[in-house]
Structures are given as C-alpha cells and as structure tokens.
Design goal:
5 strands; disordered N terminus; five-stranded mixed beta sheet; 14% strand; Cytidine Deaminase, domain 2; alpha+beta
Length: 247
C-alpha cells in the first residue's frame, strides 16, 4: 500500500514529521481510537488536509493555518482567511486552501440547519441562532431581509447590502419592490455589527421606523429588526423600539 506523502518527510527545524510522532498519537490512529472529539483543533484540520508536503507534516501545516489569522487564532479564524492567504503557506496549494475554506462554510451551514429545526419567526432568539454563525464572523456589515407569508413561513432570504456601515443607504422603495415580488406579507430585517456589539445605533432605530411606517402603508408588516453581535443579539421589537412612534 502506498504511504501518504507526509510519511516520507524529514524533520525541518522544530517541525515534526508523521514518522516522528508515536503511532498512537497520529491524527488518523488517534481519531479511530478516541473519535473526532478526542482530537485537538490542529489534529482535526490535519485529518482534513490528509497529507503534508516534503519536510512538513499535515499537523505542522494545520498549526500554520491556525496561526495565520492575526486577530482570530484558531478555528474561527478560518472564516476570515482567503485562498491567497492560505497559499502563502509553503505546502498549501489551491486544493488545500479550498478544503480549508469549505470547512468554514460547512460549519456555518450545519449551524444554520440545526437552528432551523425549531425556528419560529415570532421568536427572536431562534432567528438570531439561525443567523448567528453565518453573520457574526463577517468583517463587513451585512443586511438581510427575511420575506414571510401570511403563515409566517419564510419564502425568501434577500441580501440587501454588504460592506456599508451606513444603514440609511438601504432604500425602502427597493426593499418593498423586492418584498412585493415575493408576495411577502411580513418582513424581518437582520444585520450584523462587525464590532461584536449588538447595541442599536441611532441610525438603526431611525431606518427601522422609516421602513416600518412605509410597510404599514403597503400592508407589509415589519415584524422585527434583529442586530447580530458576537454571540449576542438585540431585537428592536423586544426593546420596544419598533413599536414606539416618534423620534
């Protein structure tokens, strides 16, 4: 049987090759013995990468990848990496770079699918859980709109803007043209604060009320506006901001 490429490596500096790691502690063998939950972050990533390159083990590559993101060391840093950044590591080509990025996207979708099982659109906590992993890692502000039918079932999830910090750039006219195209009866706005602080700004409150008022004229209710922070959220309806008239 052909041995993986990384088993033919030799030691380079402080890096260890697979051959220099006791067999019971190698990622594949350890995973078979303890299950995936028994692996470190680097070992999990090494199993996905499958092999290293000449002079570098898969675990060494995994460690370098986890160290690559300056501000988010560890698995969450994967969300912030690009193909070019990953390919800057010796031994990581486009295939391995795409494998790593797909891990991040897969984890987001798993989290969103899990959250959708108990999703009710009258429950801000469930809605925040549905969007949390997809939005809390965004480095730019992203604004989405959930389009709902008369039974509060989602019939559309529309990206309104990305990369702006000025919520006032959202045009109520364009928003409601989109809502009408879906035959939506209700809407929920969801956007993130890249700072991680989910507190609403004056701009958030002003735009929310403007969209609510426009929706009342068209018969499309704005049920809530949820702001996603880092493992936290704010529901403007729960804060009574959405129901309050005036400035």
């Amino acid at each position: 049987m052909r041995k993986p490429d990384n088993e033919n490596c030799t030691e380079t500096g402080s890096r260890r090759t697979i051959r220099q790691i006791p067999e019971a502690e190698r990622p594949y063998e350890k995973c078979l013995r303890l299950g995936p939950e028994g692996l470190t972050d680097a070992e999990l990533l090494a199993v996905i990468l499958r092999s290293g390159t000449k002079g570098v083990s898969s675990i060494s590559l995994a460690d370098e990848i986890l160290d690559l993101c300056r501000f988010n060391r560890g698995l969450t840093g994967i969300y912030h990496l690009t193909v070019d950044q990953l390919c800057s590591i010796s031994g990581v080509g486009q295939v391995k770079a795409l494998q790593v990025l797909c891990i991040g996207e897969l984890s987001k979708r798993i989290a969103q699918t899990s959250a959708s099982g108990g999703l009710t659109f009258c429950d801000p906590d469930a809605i925040a859980a549905y969007y949390m992993e997809a939005m809390r890692h965004e480095e730019q502000e992203v604004v989405r709109c959930m389009m709902l039918n008369v039974k509060n079932r989602m019939i559309g999830d529309v990206l309104l803007t990305r990369g702006t910090v000025n919520l006032s750039l959202i045009s109520p006219r364009e928003l409601f043209i989109c809502a009408l195209s879906y035959h939506a009866v209700h809407m929920i706005l969801v956007h993130n604060h890249p700072s991680g602080d989910a507190s609403p700004s004056d701009e958030d409150i002003s735009v929310t009320r403007r969209i609510r008022d426009a929706g009342e004229l068209l018969g499309i209710d704005l049920l809530d506006h949820i702001i996603i922070g880092d493992r936290c959220y704010t529901s403007l309806r729960e804060k009574y901001i959405l129901n309050t008239r005036g400035v």
